[in-house]
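Can't paste images in this forum, so I'm doing it all in text. The chain is below; anyone willing to post the predicted structure tokens underneath?
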Amino acid sequence: PLTVAQKAFIGRKMKGDFLAKFEEYVTEVDTLSDQNRRNVLRQVTKLAMGEGIRYESKAYGWPEDCYFIKGTKVGPTADILKLMEVGQKCEDEWGRDHGNGWLLSHPLKKL
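Text version of the structure:
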């Protein structure tokens, strides 16, 4: 987890349009391919808006109304390690991510 000082520093840096700054980061600093950047941004946007993430694969998807942290807005100062634990519990209970981490793991790690 981040210290209070680290959270304050990141909060100052990300003040304003966090998602635009995050997109710039994954475009200019911690670069991803176009497709991977789109995947990460789609998931991070859902998290930032509090929509949660649902695995909607026809073959492997989660049951209806099963979402990873729906109703909780996630930002750059969130406890990512804790969120990854929660995500793993969701996969353990509802079904693993057959997309090799692009559902939850990679987007959370980029945050």
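The chain is about 50% helix and 0% strand. The mean pLDDT is 92.
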